[in-house]
Write a structure and sequence with these properties.
By secondary structure, this protein is an all-alpha fold. It has one domain (2-131, 177-535): Amino acid/polyamine transporter I (Up-down Bundle). It contains 26 helices and 4 strands. A two-stranded parallel ribbon has the order 1-2. Strands 3-4 form a two-stranded antiparallel ribbon. Strand 3 (500-501) and strand 4 (504-505) form a beta hairpin. It is globular, with a radius of gyration of 25 Å.
């Protein structure tokens, strides 16, 4: 037993821990504060009743976001394992949740292409004349409308395409007619994508020892840029009009169920829930880290950043509306259009446009960098936890990470082809959809709140932190989160509409591929449970009893105290043969 215990301690040391509490906070904050905070939240706030949207957002953050955030972080810290192997120490029957989260995590890595787009724009920001403001370039068409042209008003009556749109579609993306026409690889985008993966590799090649150090810059500098852009935006003419559109409360929208659903969806996206990343980040903590306190501060930081970013974004859009003589709702749109079309047009109208454009895209780049390398680190860590002996004795971490990054880069070359934007939208729409997140949330709460026991989870958090979660958290884990997630899950299926890019309709095989991506994560949970029930010996009742309790793992017991190991044995059911 001594040799086993020593072997486990060596394995724990090789897996690594955060060098300091500061690095842990920076990495988690960098992961949850991303592009969704800067663009998605302000747009949803404007679209769904302005200031009134803050009501469902705030309520769902309290009743759903914070409790689930605490649950996932504490599970990782308690088990000291990735999001697959952690389940054998909690509820082996639910291990399929971790497998499904691995599928979701692999699909979310596709967002590195946004990082590549940002880098592409950042390089062009240093030109003496910004290429998206004029129509004198080789890629422009006869219908091009220059940014400084007074006729460039994005209304339904306007004929022509803004120069910023043509730069986005024709110069950078080289958009083809559809996903059937992938075309050739855009070598400039491929180089930008390669640079992003090189940066990612050197951020995670030493595990948390390197990613923690990188976060000192990547997690803090975006706040400096956001502050600079916020101050500049508030001083622009027309800024007040943009802020009015951002915050004007339309109380009638609170009666719209869709507003509440989108608020919940934003909570899941911005807090990084149900993707397994929080489990992994928590697993590198010391056992007695106060994750209970950390949870509140990080969630407040996340939501606060979203709210403040709205002022920076809509003050600039108000300025753009003022310059063009139109209303704000005629210059803004969601998604890439807001980040890569509307804002570059606005900065082109400011004094020193190169400086403000560079600041903006540098901020976007650093925001996306954090989410990228944390997602990759969580995948690699989880795979290593599945095969600890092989990686400890045969494969060096640096070599494994290098091979993984190369494979993921080669797979993503399809996204930098002429039809790559259609591939990206397909994966974005189906790979990590609301249906996946809500289903995983339901499964997590059922496994931990009911099978493992919400009371036992509270005991664990109290043992780790010295603070016992209030009864509110136990009620949220057992009732509120599953109920809200189930409602959102059902409404998504009822209101489902096929993905479209402008007027382009995907072929049937693409929709089939998309649903395959969605079901590949969702079906992992029941399929794994059925497989384990078939492989476990004993009667049906005995198998169910064994799989619903923590596995009697000597490695786990060796990692805990004698008293804790005794508790584990007491928790195990007595199975007669």
């Amino acid at each position: 037993m001594k040799s086993t215990k020593n072997e486990i301690q060596t394995s724990d040391e090789e897996r690594g821990k955060w060098a300091s509490k500061r690095e842990y906070i920076l990495v988690v904050a960098g992961n949850v504060v991303g592009l969704g905070n800067v663009w998605r939240f302000p747009y949803l706030c404007y679209k769904n009743g302005g200031g009134a949207f803050l009501v469902p957002y705030g309520l769902l953050a309290i009743f759903s976001g914070i409790p689930l955030f605490l649950l996932e972080i504490s599970v990782g810290q308690y088990t000291q394992e990735g999001f697959i192997t952690c389940w054998r120490k909690l509820c082996p029957l639910a291990k399929g949740i971790g497998v499904g989260q691995l599928v979701i995590s692999l699909s979310t890595v596709i967002y590195v292409i946004v990082e590549a787009w940002t880098l592409f724009y950042l390089v062009f920001s240093f030109r003496s004349t910004l290429p998206w403001v004029s129509c004198d370039n080789t890629w422009n068409t006869a219908d091009c409308l220059a940014t400084f042209d007074s006729s460039n008003v994005t209304t339904n009556q306007t004929k022509g395409t803004p120069a910023a749109v043509e730069f986005w579609e024709r110069r950078m993306l080289g958009m083809s007619g559809g996903i059937e026409e992938l075309g050739s690889v855009r070598w400039e985008l491929a180089l930008c994508l390669l640079a992003c993966w090189v940066f990612c590799y050197f951020s995670v090649w030493k595990g948390v020892r390197s990613s923690g150090k990188v976060a000192y810059f990547t997690a803090t500098f975006p706040y400096v840029m956001l502050l600079v852009l916020l101050i500049k935006g508030l001083t622009l003419p027309g800024a007040s009009e943009g802020i009015y559109y951002y915050l004007y409360p339309d109380i009638n929208r609170l009666a719209d169920l869709q507003v509440w659903i989108e608020a919940g969806s934003q909570i899941f996206f911005s807090y990084g829930l149900t993707a397994g990343v929080l489990n992994v980040l928590g697993s590198y903590n010391k056992y007695h880290n106060n994750c209970y306190k950390d949870c509140f501060w990080i969630c407040v930081l996340n939501s606060g950043t979203s709210f403040v970013a709205g002022f920076a974004v809509f003050s600039v859009l108000g300025f753009m509306a003022h310059e063009q003589g139109v209303t704000v709702d005629n210059v803004t749109e969601s998604g890439p259009g807001l980040a890569f079309i509307a804002y570059p047009q606005a900065t082109a109208l400011m004094p020193l446009p190169q400086f403000w454009t560079a600041c903006f895209f540098l901020m976007l780049f650093l925001l996306s960098v954090d989410s990228h390398f944390v997602a990759v680190e969580s995948i690699f860590s989880t795979v290593k936890d599945l095969f600890p002996r092989s990686f400890r004795l045969r494969v060096r971490h640096e070599i494994f990470v290098l091979i993984g990054c190369i494979i993921l880069y080669l797979l993503q070359l399809t996204v930098v082809t002429e039809g790559g934007i259609y591939v990206f939208n397909l994966i974005d729409f189906y790979g990590s959809t609301r249906v996946c997140m809500n289903f995983m949330a339901i499964c997590e709460c059922m496994a931990l709140g009911w099978i493992f026991g919400a009371e036992r989870v509270s005991n664990i958090i109290e043992d780790m932190t010295g603070h016992r979660p209030s009864v509110f958290f136990r009620v949220s884990w057992k009732f509120i989160i599953p109920l809200l997630s189930l409602i959102s899950f059902v409404l998504y299926l009822v209101d489902y509409k096929h993905l479209k890019v402008k007027d382009y309709i995907y072929p049937d095989w693409a929709y089939a591929l998309g649903w395959t991506m969605t079901l590949s994560s969702v079906l992992m949970v029941p399929l794994w449970a059925v497989g384990q029930m078939c492989l476990t010996p004993g009667t049906f009742r005995q198998r169910l009893s064994v799989l619903c309790h923590p596995a009697e793992d000597p490695a786990w017991q060796g990692r805990k105290t004698v008293e804790e190991a005794t508790m584990v044995q007491l928790m195990m059911p007595t199975v007669t043969t």
